[in-house]
Amino acid sequence: MTISRRTFVAGSLASALPLGAWAAPKSRTHSYGADKLDIYPAAEARGAVIYVHGGAWRSGSRKAVGAKPAWFNSMNLDFISLDYPLLPKTPVSGQIRAVRQAIDWAFENVAAPERTLVMGHSAGAHLAAMATLTGWMPQPAGVIVNDTGAVDLVTLSRAHDGHLPTGTRHAFKDRSQWGTLSPAYSLARNLPPVLAIYSKVRGHGMAMSNFATLARGNGTEVTVFDGSAYRHAEVNRSLGTGKIPDLERAVTGFVTKALQR
Fold first, then answer.
1. Which of 51, 103, 132, 234 fits a 20 to 30 Å CA distance from 139?
2. Is 221:169 a contact under the CB 8 Å cutoff?
3. Short-list 221, 218, 230, CA closest to 194
4. Sign, CA torsion 110/36/142/25
5. What pTM was estimated for this model as a whole?
6. Domain boundaries, the chain
């Protein structure tokens, strides 16, 4: 299933509201292993969303959440945003393990796996996919992979004359590891549903489309949102602001369906 930029997705949990319509919620900070996460609790939570921030595997913060906490809280979902160790101190493989540790902590302390969705943007989308779709158990109710070419490093490189783009190259210097560290080529079976989102960034549509094809061939239900009219940061920062209603409908529709299973 592919959602175009103009497709209306029925069954949304919350209507998009203008920027500033959500009251900024307060968070609680907890440690999981060596790193921390923030929980923005919903008034009457019936599940949770775990968010993995981007930053090219070497920067970023769990505090960069925008309107997402209040938006997901309005759907009666706790919102969890986590930090993880970064390059150059911690390689991507170590980051994947740390993200999985945070996910397991949330499963044990916030919401059961079948009531939890995992979402990441950019590098965080790659880490979220690697930590949920490549054999780790238990599995969440659904995974939102928001705009990363690293879901398929091999295909991404083809869009850049055989090389990885600057924002990705430093994290994956060993070409022999591109397949192993690409979710597309490491998929397990019997996976939860996936919402795959891509922007106008060169190569992201190609990589995400091939990832979706391989995942579907593996029996996974994948919905693809064509965000090629939007910038990389836009498909993340706009969530909960009402600026891209079709994207918000895609996300809320996906969340609704995933939690009904």
1. 234
2. no
3. 221
4. positive
5. 0.92
6. 2-259
